[in-house]
Design goal:
It contains six helices and no strands. About 80% of the residues lie in helices and about 0% in strands.
């Protein structure tokens, strides 16, 4: 049996239907945001740690460089969005694990994403003001 045949369950008649399911995209985005957050934390700890070891002047110069870079301000907004998505989707998965809302997964996903989007918009407005 090929991988393509194994990926198709009775619920999905074709391989392309699997990729059009909300749950598949939620799963993939959850994994990607998790990896992104871990990579950010490693980079942050390395950068801050090495600049602290080099002394107060180097640390202040690093912070000044980071805080005045407009690209990093956009990356910070994206990071907050990833954290909000990952957290909201994690709460949704926790609810399913304890048996709440299992039959209404798609609706709970969209409600949690709407709440997350509202939170992210609030953060963006706060940051830009």
């Amino acid at each position: 049996m090929s991988n393509r045949e194994m990926a198709v369950t009775p619920r999905f008649k074709t391989h392309s239907q699997v990729w059009s399911a909300v749950g598949m995209w939620a799963w993939m985005l959850h994994r990607l945001t998790g990896i992104g957050i871990v990579l950010y934390l490693l980079l942050h700890a390395t950068l801050m740690g090495t600049s602290l070891i080099r002394g107060a002047e180097a640390f202040n110069a690093t912070l000044n460089t980071l805080m005045t870079n407009p690209v990093l301000h956009l990356a910070e907004i994206a990071l907050v969005g990833a954290i909000i998505y990952h957290g909201m989707n994690g709460i949704r998965l926790l609810l399913f694990d304890i048996g709440i809302g299992f039959s209404r997964q798609k609706e709970i996903f969209w409600v949690s994403m709407a709440i997350g989007a509202a939170m992210w918009i609030f953060v963006i407005i706060s940051k830009l003001s």
